[in-house]
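During the no-cost extension, the postdoctoral fellow (Dr. R.K.) reprocessed legacy sequence entries with the updated structure-token encoder. One reprocessed record is reproduced below for audit purposes.
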Amino acid sequence: MQPNPPLLAVHRDNFPVSAVVREGDAVDFEAHVHACGQLVFAQHGPMLLETRSGIVRMGPDRAAWLPAGEPHAVFLDRRFRYHSLYIDSDFCSRGTCGVFILSPLLRELIIDVSSWPESNLTADEKMRRAHVIVDEIVRAPRTGSSARIPDDKKLGIICRAIERDTSIEKSLEDWAAEVGASSKTLQRLFRAQTGMAFQQWRNHVRMTRALELHMSGMRELDVALAIGYATEGSYAQAFKKFYGHPPSFLKRRAKG
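Re-encoded structure tokens follow.
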């Protein structure tokens, strides 16, 4: 992530919580910061959210809290609709960023805020709902699914490319030629900055993405192809090695 990203102004009314809903076919917002806190929820379309701690793929079951001044970037590569709640810093004091599983209550409240300007709600009614939103943000347990993006510029290029397209089949030698470094140097940097070898880091990203695709209802073969495996069998073996059970376990579990 670039150092000292620019401050992007947000149009606010005279209320501690306001909403902006964005939708389109694809978007790539480079690193920036806001003077207020931001709650991000991708209602439709998979979102990649990058902060200083890493990149996380945001599904419709997750939201992210970004305190004021937290550098972040957003990438969506297909049709999307996402909500941003901008919240005054003195109204929500949660000072650390994080991704969490979205509660049904908070999901409905986020969507509700976008209708406030045209609603007949009184200021007191809006304020009561705003306090519930903040309480949900503060109480929500954080998840640890983000993939660490190394500080090294060349590794960052590689990692961001793989996060955006997990089916990329390039070897470390291919990447070395592309970014202008030796494969030994890249492997050493991967271990030093992520605690994992290149292959382990890529597998972590692929398996995280695979789980999300399974939960969305995608067929096992389609998941395998989407994350870079040539056959369903080789994918199933890799999935079992990573999670301790085969992909079919998810289907059985869903049926109860």
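The mean pLDDT is 88. The chain is about 40% helix and 20% strand. The remaining legacy entries will be reprocessed before the final report is submitted.
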